[in-house]
Amino acid sequence: xxxxxxxxxxxxxxxxxxxxxxxxxxxxxxxxxxxxxxxxxxxxxxxxxxxxxxxxxxxxxxxxxxxxxxxxxxxxxxxxxxxxxxxxxxxxxxxxxxxxxxxxxxxxxxxxxxxxxxxxxxxxxxxxxxxxxxxxxxxxxxxxxxxxxxxxxxxxxxxxxxxxxxxxxxxxxxxxxxxxxxxxxxxxxxxxxxxxxxxxxxxxxxxxxxxxxxxxxxxxxxxxxxxxxxxxxxxxxxxxxxxxxxxxxxxxxxxxxxxxxxxxxxxxxxxxxxxxxxxxxxxxxxxxxxxxxxxxxx
Amino acid sequence: xxxxxxxxxxxxxxxxxxxxxxxxxxxxxxxxxxxxxxxxxxxxxxxxxxxxxxxxxxxxxxxxxxxxxxxxxxxxxxxxxxxxxxxxxxxxxxxxxxxxxxxxxxxxxxxxxxxxxxxxxxxxxxxxxxxxxxxxxxxxxxxxxxxxxxxxxxxxxxxxxxxxxxxxxxxxxxxxxxxxxxxxxxxx
Lengths: 298, 188
Hints:
The structure holds 2 protein chains of 2 kinds.
Chain A: H1 5-36, H2 46-56, H3 64-86, H4 90-109, H5 114-145, H6 150-156, H7 160-163, H8 165-178, H9 206-228, H10 236-259, H11 265-292
Chain B: E1 9-14, H1 20-27, E2 41-42, E3 51-55, E4 58-59, H2 63-72, E5 78-82, H3 84-88, E6 98-100, E7 110-112, H4 119-149, E8 161-162, H5 177-180
Parallel strand pairs in B: 1-2, 1-3, 3-5, 5-7, 7-8
Antiparallel strand pairs in B: 4-6
């Protein structure tokens, strides 16, 4: 257990700059989406205006618990990212991420609105879809680096991507679910799919909705940080390549969002488990064999 | 500065419109007019909406629906009546099932007459509505301060704005009987 000044700085930077980077990414997302659809699009700072507006609105809540659950979702999301950028244990980070998502589901279940309820059920299905892959990622990173600690993986681990290419592809796949992009934006989306009104967030308004939005910003930055982990080996040029690949992956998600319609939950569950099994599972199996024949270290 | 004018989310309800105005409302969202330039998003959820767009006159069966949508919208909020039917009842005004314009049920802030109202006029109406939104936000703030002192009276409602139809030279007049009996919010 060592505290380096670098991990403290990166955690503080995440706390302070996380929402700004996340909001800017969301704004760029909306602009690129608009351009892909032949529109001019809103200003880049539009997500900040939206949150500012939501904070100005009258507070309307369905029950007393709801606000608490959504705030807990935001706080656990911040804890998740802060632990990650502090260089803590990867398993702890993943469990915190799940806790945050669960609080959101409980918040949606807490109201009797059928739209909110179905949205919450779909969110649970989405969690079922992506969780196995996230856990396999932790397993894979441990097998390659010999540690769960993010700080050690980043500073002096080998280049994880070489041995984890399958898990990397699997993570890109579930990133679509986590970013709430089509074809997997079942529980809620930023676009005009309205068969569930607004799904999960139907009953959230004003300040509560703003908290949820900020939680998304924090989450997106954290998820891209997770992607960066595959490229980190302590050298500056791989760090640059990692950041560039993160941005390319984000652009890819926007592109996928715009070319796909929304799929049914059955497809989401089946396809993501299939990808997890084929890419993630085979990758982990291969690592076992490589280890058994002492072809790699650790 | 108020963010409310930079991010107005709209909800659209079809009273008993012939779909002419509805199509024009949706046309505003297309690449041709692209109201997202102004941060305007069509939400479909009254709890997220700031601007209530109503097309068509109000009939006896959807009075409660319109009232409910209006009441579910958090303050500050603005109602824009789109098309001559929503403004005064239009040609359906004398029908046995028609109550009249939107202002017979909920307070209306901006009227956008026309049959059908053009997308430019609708955008203009919503942008006029933003001014009303900013005023209402300021009034909310004042009221919050005044409540701290005494039980202050709510500020008098602003007179509704009327949008001139594109192409016409004179402001259109719409009915007299319904205008006189605009119900306040307290009725609901």
